[in-house]
Amino acid sequence: MLSAASQSQLTPRPAKCLCRPVAGWLAAIFLLVAAPALHAGIKSERLLAAIINHNPAPLIVESGRQLALAEQAARRLPGAHAFWGVGQSMEPLYATNTAVVVVPVAYDRIRKGMTVVFWNRDGFRVAHTVVGETRGGYLTQGVNCPEPDPGVVNEDNLIGVVVQAFAASDTPFRIETAQRLAAKGRYRIAPAVLATLNG
Question: pLDDT tens digits, residue range 40-61?
Answer without folding.
Answer: 588 888 998 899 889 999 999 9
